[in-house]
Amino acid sequence: MLVSKNDCLLLVVDLQDKLLSKIECKFNLLRNTDILIKSFKTLNLPIVVTEQYPKGLGSSHSILQSEISREDYIQKTSFSCIKEKVVLNEINKKKKTQVIICGIETHICILQTAADLLIEKYNPFVVSDAVGSRNTVDHDRAISRLAKNGVNIVTTEMIVFELLENSKSDHFKKVTELIK
Prior knowledge:
The protein is of the alpha/beta class. The protein contains 9 helices and 6 strands; from the N terminus they run E-H-H-E-H-H-E-H-E-H-E-H-E-H-H. It has one domain (8-179): Isochorismatase-like (Rossmann fold), CATH 3.40.50.850. Strands 3-2-1-4-5-6 form a 6-stranded parallel beta sheet. The longest helix has 17 residues, at 26-42. The two termini are 26 Å apart.
């Protein structure tokens, strides 16, 4: 299944500095998340952002703060975003069936969110190079488990080019410059 720009939204999960400080490959995760956010904004596609218990875990990374208005962040305490009614309601409100997921941690919040999205009859896409865990083993096992359970495992470039669809897209040059 390909991503449809007419039927998707981006879900950015818990990209908070205190959590990021322990994440392996965080440079790539941050770079790719930034590409996704800017691509979605350029294409005027919906973005939903969560923060896990910000009172204890602090605020989101500066790439989010520079791109997403603070009042648009949804605070949560459940590991699965979908167990938080306000997040599920926000996703439902967008009337999209494909949910592109990036953020942290792959084996906890990303895994549980994607699994719950399947239960809710959504099509989750986990962006493997824009999610991360504190260690590679947890990340790799989570990606494998998600794939075995029917979650689409994709990369940042897959998403970007599926959204663009054609090199003649009005946004092609601007979005592909983000990848270079």
